[in-house]
Design brief:
This protein is an alpha+beta fold. It has one domain: Phosphatase 2c, domain 1. The protein has seven helices and eleven strands. The strands form two sheets. Strands 2, 3, 4, 5, 6 and 9 form a six-stranded antiparallel sheet that branches. A five-stranded antiparallel sheet has the order 1-11-10-7-8. α1 runs antiparallel to α2. The protein is globular, with a radius of gyration of 17 Å. The model has no long low-confidence stretch (mean pLDDT 95). The protein binds calcium ion. The site of calcium ion has 6 residues, from α5. The site of calcium ion (CA) has 6 residues, from α5.
């Protein structure tokens, strides 16, 4: 049996939690990090999780395209909600979801929340951030360490609910027994270095999600933080 841990926390600075997470059948796991003024961020991530779940729940087996289309349905509904309600103008959310079936994992992703795979002691980032600083890194104009502290690091180039069409990344790979999967919002990565994330995933007994969240809080908890950890056992 695979083990799943999940945790979300408002952090120590923000007034509300704009992150959302969901674990639902058929073996789907997702995190979302909402943005927008007042309540709009919470509404955006909540709406995403609700719509995606509604689209996918109870289906027999899912493909990358199913995950993508579910996010796109949420994208359209969010744009509509923003047009209808002035307070929701400019709202959006990240969306990172994966689904496991028959030893295979497929994922879909928009924004700067992340999916990581820890295999044979090595932590790999599966998704690429859709952010302004990530573009600069890819063009060689910024190093990874400069990107971590860049003043515009929160600026997304893609988000669910943003104006216009949305391009959703997706992929799949075969799982191995012992793989550990991590889904997290940037409130984790911005506070806890990869080396510590990797160590906690491998060494800490018990609830690894709670452990990662408490690490982000001890480091200052400047943002909402949301984590799902899955220890895969075929
Ligand atoms: Ca965040």
């Amino acid at each position: 049996m695979s083990k799943v841990y999940r945790a979300t926390d408002v952090g120590l600075v923000r007034p509300g939690n704009e992150d959302a997470l969901a674990v639902f059948s058929p073996e789907c796991y997702m995190v979302a990090d909402g943005m927008g003024g007042h309540v709009a961020g919470e509404v955006a991530s909540g709406l995403l999780v609700e719509v995606v779940q509604e689209q996918l729940q109870g289906k027999a087996s899912l493909t990358i395209d199913d995950l993508r289309s579910a996010i796109l349905v949420a994208h359209k509904e969010m744009q509509q909600a923003a047009r209808n309600t002035p307070a929701y103008e400019g709202m959006g959310t990240t969306a990172t979801i994966f689904h496991i079936a028959a030893g295979n994992l497929c994922w879909a992703h928009v924004g700067d929340s992340r999916l990581y795979l820890l295999r044979h002691g090595k932590l790999d980032q599966v998704t690429r951030d859709h952010s302004y600083v990530e573009e600069l890194v890819e063009r060689g104009k910024l190093t990874e360490s400069e990107a971590r502290v860049h003043p515009q690091k929160n600026m997304l180039t893609r988000a669910v609910g943003m104006e216009g069409a949305l391009d959703v990344d997706g992929g799949q790979f075969a799982l191995e027994a012992g793989d550990i999967l991590l889904l997290a919002t940037d409130g984790l990565m911005n506070m806890v270095p990869d080396a510590s994330i990797s160590r906690i995933l491998q060494e800490e007994p018990g609830d690894k999600a709670a452990r990662l969240v408490s690490e982000a809080l001890s480091a200052g908890g400047r943002d909402n933080v949301t984590v799902i950890v899955l220890e895969y056992a075929s």
